[in-house]
Amino acid sequence: MSNLLEQLKSMTVVVADTGDFESIEAFTPRDATTNPSLIQAAAGMEQYASVVDSALEQAKAQVDSDDKEAIADAAIDLLAVEFGKRILAIIPGRVSTEVDARLSFDTEKTIAKARHLIGLYEAAGISKDRILIKIASTWEGIKAAEELEKEGIHCNLTLLFGLHQAVACAEANVTLISPFVGRILDWYKKDTGRDSYPAPEDPGVLSVTEIYNYYKRFGYETEVMGASFRNLGEITELAGCDLLTIAPKFLKELQETDGDLPRKLDPTKAQDMTIKKLSMDKATFDQMHNDDRMAKEKLAEGIEKFAAAQVELEGMLQARL
Description:
Blueprint: H1 4-9, E1 13-17, H2 21-27, E2 31-33, H3 36-43, H4 49-63, H5 68-88, E3 95-98, H6 107-123, E4 131-136, H7 139-150, E5 155-160, H8 163-171, E6 176-179, H9 181-192, H10 203-218, E7 223-226, H11 232-236, E8 243-246, H12 248-255, H13 267-270, H14 282-291, H15 293-320
Parallel strand pairs: 1-2, 1-8, 2-3, 3-4, 4-5, 5-6, 6-7, 7-8
Helix pairs in contact: 3-15, 4-5, 5-15, 6-7, 8-10, 9-10
């Protein structure tokens, strides 16, 4: 019997949720995702000092001044792309690179930043088909992604916690969404005072299952990539999901665990389900978002945390200068 990781790969695209090249090489995922927190963590590792220095040198040449703030600002995009380039040298698929979370409520600035990042990749000889631009699942972010997709720039809508966000993304023809399983569980544990949930009853698992079945029932092409896991049970309960982005510690645990892994999510089964179809406009989105206390709080918190990681990374780069 093969290990759980190999069985999972037979039904789900496994994505490495890390900026650590060594971990990516160890588990041979098809794709990889990064975010400001992961880039910040990797940038602080001694073995990646050369990557950081390379980005700073390129930024100095671009800015052509001694303004440390301007150099650090330019270096952040270059650093994200530098990590992306090196990850793409290891994996056969795509890498996700995130737009500054501070732009999450500005459609035009999100579009401009996405175009800039794609331009940096193309200048490095990397096709935009291998890049997913990560954008927070605000209404403004989803509208930015809708425009970018029309330009052939593929998007990964992140910080997704509710069905209303998922429906809006599908109607915008977004390439991929990343519902955050573990953060949903975190909220419910805190809100209810429960210490744990059985894996089949995990609120994050139930949320992703609902979104997956909705997409498959109505024939949407947007892919579902479960993200942000807290335990192995959340991952095995979502076996069969289009993609799962998994941190190295869980990839290792899956690889070292033998046993049978049954498929839990199946597009053919979703076809026979009775599901109400929704239509999403801004008023409906805003109403559903305001009514969903968990999604509202976790989206705001996620944007705040990613923005804080971005600010901390800027400070790290300025200090390095």
